[in-house]
Amino acid sequence: MAYASPGTDTSTDLDTDEKNQMLELGQLASLTASGSGDKSKDKLGQKALRRLAQNREAARKSRLRKKAYVEQLENSRLKLAQLEQELQRARQQGIFIPNSGDKPHSTGENGALAFDTDYAQWQEDHSKQINELRGALNAHAGDDDLRRIVDSIMAHYGEAFRLKGVAAKADAFHVLSGMWKTPVERCFLWLGEFRPSELLKLLASRLEPLTEQQLASICSLQQSSQQAEEDLSQGVKALQQSVAETLALGSPCPAGSSGNAADCSGQMAVAIGKLGTLENFLQEADNLRLQTLQQMQSVLTTRQSARALLAISDYFSRLRALSSLWIARPRE
């Protein structure tokens, strides 16, 4: 199908119509001049005028059809561009969208894809739980009802960390990079998720009034979380350095080799063995996150725990919203 650009000018049609009308007028003048009498002149003139009117109407309809066709093409082009933008935005947010014919080629890819799907379902279920909790708080529900919802949400967090543990066994780097999250969320990522100490700092200002004992307990919990985070970060840094030294300072590859994995299989095997410990760091980080949430719950009252879970959910929702606004921001 030939493509007409959105800016197609209809002046060509107008010029053609004018030429046709000029030709008709010329024919009219010629016929009128060659007529033998007044009556024949009138008849010929009326006939020519009718033909001119018919031609003009046909040309008008033709222009309208062409205009509608060009508008249809433009609308199709805009819809295609919009779909391409949405596809690019989804990929930037870490959502896996396979091309036709794409198939995972390894256990790691299968595990990562399964985790992304399971986590999306987890997020949907979590939103329903949070909405239920928000409604219960707004309705001033009793502590028993709130405790049931809070316990359910806490158990659901445990399920998320279990899913991540399974995914880390299949592909630790997928979990480490947080590719299932939005770009802004990934900016604040620490070993595949949030920093427990930062979350406690956020909650301390949102749960007032707190008793002195509660404040002291949260402060102590925050300090112990920071120390554990630092220890894990140092462990990962040491792992990175060790792998780099293995690749850089290992025994030379055989003479004449290209330096690829097949030629230096010994070094690669050692490096892979070291990278295997990354799964342990991810698991320890998730254990720290879950323990921090559980200890926070033990320090707070049931109603404070409910407010804390809402604050956590609202914070991450704003991060996701900020990511969408960042992607959709005007660009010069």
From TrEMBL:
Recorded superkingdom: Eukaryota
GO CC term (a single one): nucleus
Region annotation Disordered: where it falls in the sequence: 1-21
Alphabetized GO MF terms: DNA-binding transcription factor activity; sequence-specific DNA binding
Key words of the record: Coiled coil, DNA-binding, Nucleus, Transcription, Transcription regulation
Coiled coil: 66-93
Ranges where the BZIP domain occurs: 45-89
Annotated DOG1 domain residues: 112-329
Pfam families registered for this protein in UniProt: bZIP_1 (PF00170), DOG1 (PF14144)
Keyword Coiled coil: yes
InterPro entries attached to this UniProt entry: bZIP, bZIP_sf, TGA_domain
Subcellular location: Nucleus
Statement: the UniProt record of this protein carries the keyword Transcription: yes
Biological process according to GO: DNA-templated transcription
Assigned protein family: Belongs to the bZIP family.
Protein name, per record: Transcription factor HBP-1b(C1)-like
Species assigned in the record: Panicum miliaceum
